[in-house]
Amino acid sequence: MTTSDELRLLPWTGPDGKPCFLSTDDRDSYLSRLADNTESVQLGMATELLDQALDTLADADTQPDDLRPLAKNLTGALRDILRVATSRGRRLATHE
To answer: Nearest-CA neighbor of 72 among 85, 53, 47, 48?
Structure first.
């Protein structure tokens, strides 16, 4: 039986918004590689969004209405990155 600390938190949620987990010892399985690739994309998108946010906030002509979608996108990226960090932290702790 796999314990909860051996499960990998995946970088996406289920249709009901609950976390998804993967139980495998194979780091090269299809789902493991898919999760790795998804994490990489999420990190890249967060980096691009951060650059956009810095440019937007530095622009004196930025209107308050421009900040709401930016905040929404930043919130989503932060949620994704926290999930990636949590997943990677759990995997590091398990390997030690």
So the answer is: 53
